[in-house]
Amino acid sequence: MCGIVALVGSREASPILLESLKKLEYRGYDSSGLATVSIDANTQKGFISCRKAKGKLQNLLNLIQQDASPGHVGIGHTRWATHGKPEKKNAHPHLDTKGKVAVVQNGIIENHSLLRSQLEAKGIKFRSDTDTEVIPHLISEELYRLNKEGHEIGGLLLQLAVQKVLDVLKGSYALAVIWDEIPNVLIVAKSKAPLLIGFGEGEFLCASDTPAFSGFTKTILPLEDKELALITPLGVEIYDSFGNRKLRAPKLISGYESDADKGKFRHFMLKEIFEQPETAELWLTRYLPNGLPIESPVAFPFENSFYDSIEEIQILACGTSRHASMVGAYLLEQFAGIPAKVFFASEFRYAPPPLAPNVLTIGVTQSGETADTLAALAMEHERRSAYNNKDFASRQLGITNRGESSLSRQISHVIDIGAGLEVGVAATKTFLGQLLTFYGLAIMFASRRNSRSLKEIAELCDLLRCLPKQLVNLISEHNLLTEKLSHKFSSTKDVIFIGRGINYPIALEAALKLKEISYIHAQGYPAGELKHGPIALLDQTVPVISIANEGIVFEKVLSNAQEAKARDACLIGIAPKLPETDIFDHLLPIPRTSEWISPLLSVIPSQLLSYHIAARLGLDVDQPRNLAKSVTVE
Ligand code: AGP
């Protein structure tokens, strides 16, 4: 994870770096740091100033206010710890022994232990527990060696040294390097982690993601894997790993979503929950507009033939996106009649199923940056391409909330859910956008395969079109109800969610949301599984929250809930208000509706309940401990 920034500027670097880091804080917020290079007025020699702080970026801002970091060239980092605890010594930038080379990195250096022991054997003392620290020490060694061989001090020498080091690194990295001997030069490079170069007026800003460029430029050049860029005030030179110059033009991006404001809300998460009617409205206007023929009612950005000759769908995702995918797979199979299977992206990569013909692979990631998902998609693309058989050809589709993301650069067919900026680390409105997109896909497959009548398709479209209004009422009602109910959870240690069929993934999602922001242990189960083991956990201290909607498994879920009640569990229902649902000690009522669209409604009380429990506990709802919005390491 982590966010990196780097600047070659004509102005003071640190305010620009800090401003950009603020917009990348969603990538990690356990410590931060920056280093700038400037020239000493007396000696006329370059020197590096480095400032680091543990905790949120604000701590670094405070530090730099008291102790400025001078210079027009610099690098910065906001961290999500992988190797080494979130402490000041592990915050980036990391420097070589003499403090002449400074490096920030995002990614994981997998062979760092070996490299570290080789360096330690030569007498180098490490100051941190990070994998990154091997890099400045290795660069420093290479600089010394190459210089001794006769290479003159300059950009070319630094480029050669960095490239030599990149050649021995295994794993993923996006990194930026400065060297005090050449204060006007910056080197950046990447492999399997994002890095973009922004072209300003006489300045260049590099960053992990587009929001960092807001207010700086809209002209961006994404670096490709194994590329290195040498940047000076005069321009950007890009090289491949063999040192060959590459000519590529930057492109204009449409805009940024970075100016977040909580408005009247206490937290972004609550604001984003309340934005869901708008998310649905925008999605419907864009993808399910009135007036399209009912044979093809969804306006996804590709040809109708895209849906043809697909015999099976596999979906790769992580976390909340995987839960949305599970609802999606249910819809694709049960509504559209096409076999669909969901995989943990992190597992798929190393244990994919045997190749089957005419498979569509869908990657779902709201950030478009999740390393596990991107790597699994890339692996699947490679193994299918290598097979060289047209039935087994790679066909991939991405579903994301970030039109300008690594996913969009990796895959040609992408659906942007258009939920707008989501600041809260816990995904809410993007989950809704992902669900809607699966409804769109299920409708398109059903109509192309004639697996549903036009009447059934039209009915589902109509139900979806009613959603924004339903959500407005549901959210305001449940904001009050769940706030009240949250008082009951002040000493709760464990919660069990149960659901079945299309709502089983909602039980999983509800449990994940509660865990993430309240740190209360929560588990989601298919309701029928409760009696096969988890029921042993139940007593009066473990609330069981049951998601029950009218439909094929309604009575079954209610019976499973009764089994929990018989073990003294406090029973909470997310269910319609009916005589049958009197069994619940507390009811969070949802409107009576078709089972098909029930997940779009039943998820709302679960989001709000998690939010109010965490907010009441006084926790950092928007930036929960140990998490990051975008998980860019495997
Ligand atoms: C969601 O609340 C979580 N923060 C997390 O599970 C997230 O869904 C997961 O990391 C996948 O992220 P992505 O959608 O950006 O790929």
What's the total helix number? 17
Percent of residues in β-strands = 15-25%
* Superfamily (CATH H level) name of the largest domain: Aminohydrolase, N-terminal nucleophile (Ntn) domain
- The strand order across the widest sheet is 3-2-4-1-10-9-11-15
Oligomer: single chain
Give me the CATH architecture of the largest domain, please: 4-Layer Sandwich
The hetero compounds bound to this protein are:
2-deoxy-2-amino glucitol-6-phosphate
- Portion of residues in helices? 25-40%
How far is it from the N-terminal to the C-terminal residue, by CA?
Answer: 9 Å
Would you report the number of β strands? 25
The CATH C-level class name of the largest domain: Alpha Beta
When the domains are counted, the total is 3
Q: Judging from the principal axes of the Cα atoms, what is the shape?
A: globular
CATH topology of the largest domain: Glutamine Phosphoribosylpyrophosphate, subunit 1, domain 1
If you average the pLDDT, what whole number results? 94
Specify the structural class: alpha/beta
